[in-house]
Amino acid sequence: MSIREAQRPRRSAAATATRDRLFHVAMEVFAERGYHGTTVDDIVAASATSKGAFYHYFSSKQDVFLTLMDAVAGVVEAGAEAAIADEPTALRKVESALRVVLETAEARRDLVKILLVEAVGLSPALEQKRLDIHRRFAQVIQRHLDRAVVEGAIPSQNTALAAQAWLGTLNEVITQWLVTGEGRVTDRLPDLRVLLLRSIGAADARKENGS
User: Averaged over 73-78, what is the pLDDT?
Assistant: First the structure.
């Protein structure tokens, strides 16, 4: 094995570490200062790297922000999918996902604010990414609503429209909480659960104990 070949994995690991450092620092800076208040120089200074390193991995501030949006959406989606894995019915899976989304918003408030507030109307590319993420989440909801119809837990209906309505409601509830800062967003779960279950004609829309 040549010296060049031996050094290749080490350089690759170092490159990955540098990119990860830039990304995670960018996440912190965006969360603290917002999109407009953040510059590439801020990210470079906070990460103790260089502009050359930044532009080696990201083409612009918008590029790293797009990557960040995908990462935040991935955290929420992975958390929801993990939580619903052991739920016995499609309707319980949807309810569990609803709980996880609110819990994630509460636990990672600054990051969720980036996705729901900071990203709105910044540029066509960022708006397209935001809409793509919304579509991903709506498809997850629709998939489980379709199963709930098959299981007889809810009546036959336009599940695509229902999923969009659920997502719009969640988006508004969380956004209002992010902007006002009033209370805990998870405190809204019991009433929100009843409202959403009733909207799809679920027989089990009781408030008691959130079940």
Answer: 82
Q: What is the pLDDT of residue 8?
A: 45
Class of 61-210 in CATH: mainly alpha
Residues 61 and 77: their CA atoms lie apart, in Å, by: 24
Contact 91, 162 (CB under 8 A): no
Q: How far is CA 81 from the centre of its chain?
A: 12
Domain boundaries, the chain: 1-58, 61-210
The confidence band for 204, taking pLDDT boundaries of 50, 70 and 90, is: low
- Sequence-distant (6+) residues with CB within 8 A of 53 are 18, 22, 44
Which CATH number is 1-58's, of 1.20.1290.10, 1.10.10.60, 3.40.50.150, 3.30.1240.10? 1.10.10.60
**111 token code pair:** 């990051």
